[in-house]
Structure formats: C-alpha cells, structure tokens
Amino acid sequence: MSNINPEDDFDAEKVQGNILRGYKHNNVRHLMLEVTNRDAARRFLAASADGTDETVPRITRSANWAPPAPEVCFNIGITFEGLRALGLPASQLATFPTEYAEGMAQRAVKLGDFGDSAPENWPSPFDQPDRIHIVASIYSNDVEKFDPVEKQVAKAFTVLGVRDGRNLPEGKVFFGYRDGISQPRFKHIFDPEMVNVDEPKDPLGTALLGYPTHFEGVEFAIPEPKEVFHDCSFNAFRVLQQKTDAFETYLSEAAAKLEKHPKQFELLPEGAEASICGGMSRHDALREVVAAQMCGRWRNGTPYELSPNSDERGDLSLTNYDYTLSSRCPAGSHMRRANPRGGPIVQRVSNYSRRIVRRGMSYGPDPETGEHGLLGNFIGANYGAQFEAVMCDWINFGLQDPRITGTNDPLLGANVPETSAFELTLRDGGQIRLSGFPRFVITRGGAYTMLPSLPAIRYLAQLSG
User: Fold this and answer.
1) Is residue 4 very low, low, confident or very high in pLDDT (cuts 50, 70, 90)?
2) For residues 126 and 79, is the Cβ–Cβ distance under 8 A?
3) Phi, psi angles (nearest 5°) of residue 447
C-alpha cells in the first residue's frame, strides 16, 4: 500500500483528460498503433506531453480546460506490450497487474468473450493483440479534424486500424436507450453536470493509482517506480456490436406472450399504456416494459425504480434513487447488476466499490455489413477488483444476489436461448420469467491499456536502449 500524495495533494494537471470528467464531443477516432520505430515513438510521446510542437498533437489534461472542451482533444492508452516495445525494463514490467500483462484476449473467458465473441473471431487488428501497443483517441465535433491528427501520429507509429465513433441523437445507443447517465463523481473535481447528483462522492482511488479507495485502508498497488505511475488509470477498450434486430424481435415475442399472461396487469396496469412513449398500443407498451425492466431504465433514461408504470419523467431525478429488497427494478436488470448502488447484495462491502468510469460512442452501421454498436472505455484503478469483477461476478454470474445467481445480464451477458432467463417484477411482488433470448451484444475486439499520467508519459519518452 502506498502513502504517496494523499488526495489533498492531488494535481489534476498530471492526469489525462476524459478520465475524471468527460469531454462531450460528438465524434471520436480511435487509432490502434504499433511501435515499429522506438526512437520515433519516444520523441512523439515527449513532444505530445510537452505540447509545444505544433506538428504533434498535445495530450489533453484533466485540468487545462473548462467547458466547452478544446476543439480537438487527444489522449493515449498504452498496452503492456506497448510498454515493452517502448523499452520499459523487465524488472519494472514485472510489477504491473497480471490482468494488464496478459491482456484482454487472454482474459476473454473471464469476460464472457467466447463463442461469437471469442478473440479468434475478432477482426483486424484485434486478431493480433500483441501488435497493438497504443490506442490513441482523437475527440472533436468536427470530423474533418481527424485526418490531420492521424497523419501526425502516423509519422511516429504504424497505424494498424482505425475505429470511428459518434454520438447518436438524444445521447442514445442503437438499442434506443439514453446512455452515460450515471457516472462516478469525484472528490476534488468540479463537474457542472454533476451538481444535482445526490450519490456518494467517489474517492480518487476509484480511477487513479495512489489514492484511497472505497475500501478503508486499501489502495491499489502502483507499479514501479511508484512516483512515476502514480496518477495513472487502467482502461478496458471494447468494440461491442449491438444486435438490435434480434433485440427488437425478442421484445415483440415477449410482448405477445405477456398479452396472454393472466398476470399481465400486475406487470402493467390496464390503461397505463397511455403514459408510455406518449401513448401506445397494449402490445407496444408491453414491449417497452420488457425493455425497461431488462435495462433498469426506460429508453428515455427515466429510472424504472422511480416510475414503473410510465416513462414520463416529470420532476424525477435520473440518478438520485436506491434499491431495496422490494424494488420494482429487477435485481437482474443491467443497470442494477452493473451498479447495485447501496442496495442489498451478498458482498455488502462491495457497494459502490466497483464503480467504473464509462466513456463511449456508437459506431456504424457499416455500409457493407450493417454492423453497429458501441466503442466503450471502462476506466478504473484495478481490473480485477472493478472491471473484471463486474463483468464476471455481477454481469455473467449474478453472484451479488441469490435471486439471480446463475443467470446473465439480459442485455450485455453471454446468453444463449437454451439457458437464458430473466425475471420481470410485478406489483404484487410476484414475477414472470422470460427465457429463450439470445446474446444481444457481441465483442468484436478490444485491448487493456494503461492511461498514463503526464509524468509517466515523460518517463517513457526518456527511456534508453
């Protein structure tokens, strides 16, 4: 455990942007890079951290902008193989976490990435994970800004692949849900969009190495040298295909069955369809109820916990609520699995402890294949205690609640029709079980990266040999 720099000594200028506070740009380009010229890569990193060379994009810091963000923002994540390619000594490489060292492809089973989501089915360049050394990200509202920055980057690295993302209207994803609503809010960080959020503030150690965490007396280990890798984060970059046709088809199938179910009015009271999406048929309203319970929110973002019979938000908060044993929001819903808040779970010590910063934009549809989905970044200070614990223990095993243990997340989980199951909650405390749904999200690639602090970038740039 490290006692270096307590929170009171936090310097946001050392931290890359988009970690503690999002940019809100509408477009992104992710570049998968290989270090093929070590000296050129080091010179690029030095210039990018320094920010005085106009031929190299400047690393955007957490502290050097106020809303609105700069016209173009630039950040990097480095894989374990990238550290090796830059020349970090083996003695120091050995101090990094096992999850990071092995990389996302080797951790696939832990993450539920098998079958269609298995690494052997990932397209280029993710089919050669050892060659992906850096994931560089360019953010802007103007897509014409991307090509000039990419050309600057390409002078120092080999560009293995490019992934472009964009925000969809109303902040939604292709499944139709409004996204990115509930995020950690950090001590010492003022975010104007989080002013009215009434959730506990997260310690900096939730996302940054070297600071207190939710676990009393516990700080996540910092690689050597500690003074260099203080203020760094770890990121799971994921390319997630969303099977929207399959999802919408299943909603229709489920609604058709529910229309014949004797307890359908305990699920949605008679006449309540008039308060859903401005008024709908009974069938379409039941489709939306199933979608809302599976997610934990109506598609417009209204929490199901606060409004189980209508998606009309009114004065309801999007974030200020909690779960109880009698909650109408199902224990198996996506939102409740990924963030059980202060609600009852088996591992009570884990309430709020697995919070993850989520940054993402939609991609596609591809003009040839129609593939579309989400380019997601899931940021924290420890893969094992945060991202992998959420994905394995909560998303794909349901270990936080005996009522859902053995089932997978209905939206994100590794489901197959033969075993999938989800319990809809009813007003009278009963349930209706849904089953037979396929996997709706397919992993198409990704990488585990470290988001280095500015001191760490400078350190890597000064390596020799």
Assistant:
1) very low
2) no
3) -160, 145
- Which residue's entry shows tokens 């598609």? 299
Whole-angstrom distance, CA of residue 423 vs CA of residue 435: 9
CB 329 within 8 A of CB 305: yes
What are 218-259's pLDDT values in tens digits? 889 999 999 999 999 999 999 999 999 999 999 999 999 999
Closest CA to 107 of 119, 94, 96: 119
The CA-to-CA distance between both ends of the chain, in Å, stands at 31
DSSP one-letter string for 18-34: TSSS----SEEEEEEEE
At 404-431, the pLDDT tens digits run 999 999 999 999 999 999 999 999 999 9
The residue type of 156 is A
Inter-axis angle of helices 38-50 and 454-461, nearest 10: 150
Determine the average pLDDT of the residues in 17-46: 96
CB 184 within 8 A of CB 352: no
- Whether 215 shows a pLDDT value over 90: the answer reads no
Distance (Å, rounded) from C-alpha 29 to C-alpha 344? 40
What distance in Å separates the CA atoms of residue 399 and residue 32, rounded to the nearest whole number? Answer: 35
228 — phi, psi (to 5°)?
Answer: -85, -45
- 8 A C-beta contact, residue 8 and residue 17: no
Q: Tokens in use for 276?
A: 């859903």
Residues comprising the chain, all counted: 465
C-alpha closest to that of 45 among 89, 99, 88, 86: 86
